[in-house]
Amino acid sequence: MSEFEPKIVAFFCNWCTYLAADLAGTSRMKYAPNTRVIRVMCSGRVDPQFILEAFARGADGVLIGGCHPNDCHYQEGNYKALRRFYALKEIVRQMGIEDERLRLEWISAAEGERVKIVVNDMVGKIRALGPLRPKPQQEVTA
Amino acid sequence: MSEAGGPVRIGVYVCHCGTNIAAVVGCGEVADYARSLAQVAVSREYKYLCSEPGQELIRQDIRDHGLNRIVVASCSPHLHEHTFRAAVEKSGLNPFFMHMVNIREHNSWVHEDRAKATAKANDMVRAAVRRVALQQSLSRGRVEINPGVLVVGGGIAGIHAAMTLANAGKKVHLVERQPSIGGHMAMFDKTFPTLDCAACILTPKMSSVKAHPNITLWSNAEVTGVAGYVGNFDVKVTRWPRYIDEDLCTGCLQCVEACVYKEARFPDGFNMGLSKRKPIYLPFPQAVPQVPVIDPETCIQFKTGKCKKTCVAACADRQAIDFQQKEKIEQIRVGAIVIATGFQPFDASRVPYYGYGVYPNVYTSLEVERLVNASGPTGGDVVLRDGRRPKSVGVIHCVGSRDVDSNRWCSRVCCMYSLKLAHLLKEHTDAEIFNFYIDMRTPGKGFEEFYQKLLNEGVHFIRGRVAEVTDWALDPTEEDKLVLRVEDTLLGTVRRIPVDMVVLSVGLEPHADAGEVRRLFNISCASEGFFLERHPKLAPVNTFTDGIFLAGCCQGPKDIPDTVAQAGAAAAEALALIDAGAVETEPNTAHVIEESCSGCRTCVPMCPYNAIVFDAAAGRARIEQVLCKGCGTCVAACPSAAIGQHLFEDAEIFEEIEGVLANV
Average pLDDT for residues B553-571, to the nearest whole number? Predict the structure, then answer.
């Protein structure tokens, strides 16, 4: 029987985290092959519906990567992403999806190592949780 | 024609990149898998898709098989998206019908398990195939380019870039933070390996900058605001008050002579505090502009308001001195920016065991540059702080370089300048000189030869990192000396070497405020804090922000020849941009889908560029395409899904999400 392999959909901003992942590549760092990166220009482009869609379609985790505060290529898109992230986190929690499955990270273009650390850490945590089986709270309380 | 629609016919191309991808990802399996996907007409693997035959393969298929969508699974789109877009465009297909999948940087280079890496590549290709089917024909915008250039920093990098651009007939604004241009090079005595006098080769260039009709020089000034985009940067420059009107001053320096302070009393920054200056002073004899500056911190008029103002009297009817001078804001528009803000030397007091700031006869290399300089504090006479002349000198390499406790990088210039200082100190004092090195690094034209010359001059080279500098004498030969404790790794013994003078060869590091500069210009930093080039080999002077180029040590430590070469390259890149007259912009802008817009105005405050306007008459939002930079934040914010983003439409991203997860 093969081990559970979490599948993580990652939304990386074009200017920081996508480049950090490129740097991890050119530096030949090794990390878990569980992410599927979708490139967006800015973390501010990540519509909460993208995340819900990913969970609905079977993602075990969703990772959003953006530029550090103050460093957004578009000045403040990452702040918008952060606000949406907190709001969404509440909704996702109410759906019974564990906190570890939705993560927002600021990773600059110079932090290839950070991509490796974050992905490995997230894969490890989700592996421990097992596949996503949402347990809506309504059902529990009903 | 395929541009107008018709059945979607997708071509998928999986690149081996030699063995870079193929060694880990089963490229053949990926190509076979792609062939099984809906709407895929052709699927191939190829050794090097970016090569001319590789590109021609794609073009041939477009012609032969009537393909109208292309997926290229290869390296990062940051490297070759433009290559494959151009290849597709050449065949007559709209370039935005191409989508890239990154199976190298994000896959083969970071994974080892072949099955898992191949599965990941399959997922990504499937997502791309689904997405590309929805992609639309788009056209690039066109922006006129302002022919002016801003050069930030007036060291040798900025000077050379400014002169190159100005000689090509471009209007250049050169902004320097210090009261004079010249940078660190102006402080050096000689330059390695040729021992050219630094001032002799630099100061004529400095004068030329000032005299050039195409250069506007603002010293004592800083860039305090940058808006706009490639071709049209709106730059705010703050010219700090120097309290002397540059236009009225003739540079006679009678004001300095006449200052109520008869003796210079304050540390002279240019001489690293080894000499004194007055409150009104010229930074150094060859300063450009040749205009003194008043330091309000030490000037009696500023401190008490009760000075006799003998300087004003000396200036007489020229009336150049203006105690009321305020900072002046200049607004300029330029098409390109060259950043040449340089470096700061490592602060030697951060390495406490070398005793800098504790023992007066421990010097930094920059202090010694001034000490051996004929126009320096002692006129080139090497006299120690305690008045003695050194009979023996220890030069410690790698202070603040190659050190896990401070900076890990090699500063590149220290070995060579340490050799130079050893030569100059020997020439000036005939002292016995010891160089303590970890490795001698002398790659460069004439560098190794210079090292050999020094070996023949009788300079001692001891391989080992000095453990500490101490004044604790263990025997009479060490009395009144500084003792360097070091393991001589070639002899395999620990040695104590008493000397009169210690020189710390400090490394180069980014300016303390490099982070603020980076944010101001919206560029990136590498992990050490030096500004990040777009590509370390293929775009070494470009940044990730179009129209902004790098030159000199702000990008990383380098010597003068490399700095000048890079400054020339940055100027050439800026010229290439400007002379094109216009630049094409990416079409990834946001657009309002009018029939869906409810006029709620949620999007309007989302935009940091004020590109969204509310059309009250129509009751709809409208996005000014010229102002939109394509972040897509408004798209995600719209509650009615009434805003789309070209290249990143909701439907396209949903297809990607579903695509990567389709086999879950």
Answer: 98
At B78-91, the pLDDT tens digits run 999 999 999 999 99
Kindly state the percentage of chain B with pLDDT values over 90.
93
Question: What's the average model confidence in pLDDT over B291-307?
Answer: 96
Asked if A36 and B629 come within 8 Å (Cβ–Cβ), the reply is no
Q: What confidence score (pLDDT) does residue B221 get? A: 98
- Cα–Cα distance measured from residue A48 to residue A81, given in angstroms and rounded to the nearest whole number: 9
Pairs across A and B, CB distance < 8 A: 147
**Are the C-beta atoms of residues B499 and B394 closer than 8 Å to each other?**
yes
What's the whole-model pTM score? 0.87
Q: How far is A13 from chain B (nearest CA, A)?
A: 9
**Residue B650: which H helix or E strand, with range?**
helix B650-661
Structure-token pair, residue A78:
């990452």
- Beta carbons of B217 and B154 less than 8 angstroms apart: yes
The verdict on a CB contact (< 8 Å) between A116 and B635 is no
Distance CA(A14)–CA(A65), nearest Å, equals 9
Q: Do A74 and B654 touch (CB under 8 A)?
A: no
Distance CA B563, CA B253 (A): 33
A7/B629 touch (CB, cutoff 8 Å), yes or no: no
In chain B, residues with a C-beta closer than 8 Å to the C-beta of A21 are 105-106
Residue among B216, B221, B220, B182 at smallest CA distance from B200 = B182
Q: How many C-beta atoms surround the C-beta of residue B585 within 10 A? A: 20
Rg over alpha carbons for chain B, rounded to the nearest Å, is 31
Amino acid occupying residue B500? D
Chain A residue with CA closest to B609: the answer is: A74
DSSP SS3 for B399: strand
Nearest Cα residue in chain A from B529: A110
- CA-CA-CA-CA torsion for B47, B51, B55, B60, nearest 10 degrees? -70
Confidence category of residue B280, pLDDT binned at 50, 70, 90 = very high
Helix, strand, or coil (residue B539): strand
- C-alpha span between B551 and B571 (Å, rounded): 9
Q: Report how far residue B2's alpha carbon sits from residue B5's, in angstroms, rounded to the nearest whole number.
A: 5
Six-digit token string for B565 = 């070469």
Here the tokens at position B229 are: 């985009």
- B446: exposed, middle or buried (C-beta count within 10 Å: 0-12, 13-18, 19+)? middle
A80 neighbourhood in chain B, CB within 8 Å: 606, 633, 636-637
C-beta atoms of A38 and B127 within 8 A: yes
With a cut of 70, say whether residue B137 has pLDDT above it: yes
- Residue by residue, DSSP assigns B271-286 as GTTSSEE-SEE-SSTT
Q: What is the mean pLDDT of chain A?
A: 92
Q: Chain B residue closest to A50 (CA)?
A: B654
Tens digit of each residue's pLDDT (9 = 90 or more) over B612-644: 999 999 999 999 888 899 999 999 999 999 999
Distance CA B646, CA B440 (A): 54
Classify strands B460-463 and B432-437 as parallel, antiparallel or unpaired.
parallel
CB-based contact A30 B111, cutoff 8 Å: yes
Nearest to B645 among A38, A45, A75 (CB): A45
Q: With an 8 Å Cβ cutoff, are B648 and A15 in contact?
A: no
Helices (H), B264-375: 300-304, 310-315, 365-371
Residues β-bridged to residue B225: B236
pLDDT at B264: 94
B177-232 pLDDT, tens digit per residue, is 999 999 999 999 999 999 999 999 999 999 999 999 999 999 999 999 999 889 99
Query: Exposed, middle or buried, A38 (CB in 10 Å: 0-12/13-18/19+)?
Result: buried
The mean predicted confidence, pLDDT, of chain B is: 95
pLDDT at A71: 86
Chain-chain contact of B650 with A47 (C-beta, under 8 angstroms)? yes
**CB-based contact, B408 to chain A, within 8 Å:** no
